């Protein structure tokens, strides 16, 4: 378990939020699945909820942004000290700014971008809201990974913008690297190779820890969600890729003892 009450180091995934059409339905789904308390937010935030686990912030649920045909989705935010300077680096490194830096009241300053591989992510300069307060615990975020069909370009992009070092974990035709901040693993960057269906878009995936992956999959089905990839075992825990009751994709993993 990891708890934190201050800003996360630069480049670390520090927050995730879900944009959906039906906020009440999403709050109920994740409350049942992950044990979150998700009180509705104020009208000035569009009802944006800060979801809590054991009294600590773990994720956000808010109204979907963009055109009506944009699907519900989870967004991963990377911590930055200066959103404006990072936005300039993103553009210079070949990324595309989708939402220019702007203040979110006194909570912080954010921007939304797409990397050269096409995956959308956010950057977060924290003020009153420092991001995730609980991680690596059932019901909380435990991993974030970037997947695209432009693996080498994305490795170069994220190194240029965030200064990442990498540990190459590639094997058996699958290319994947763990990115590190201050020498510590912070997430993954991988390739959507030929074995992946062509309709899978570039993305950042959020993984939530659960006590029992198979039980979580059964619960998702009961709650009206879907199973995109049935549970499978890895050296890092038993995983599954799921869709919630409005179609937003996420992953769960039952981590082995010790995290």
Automatic annotation (TrEMBL):
SUPFAM superfamilies: Glyoxalase/Bleomycin resistance protein/Dihydroxybiphenyl dioxygenase. It comes from the Bacteria. Pfam families: Glyoxalase. Transmembrane segments: none annotated. PROSITE patterns: VOC. Residues 12-126, 140-259 form the VOC domain. CDD domains: SgaA_N_like. PANTHER family: CONSERVED PROTEIN, GLYOXALASE-RELATED. This is Glyoxalase.
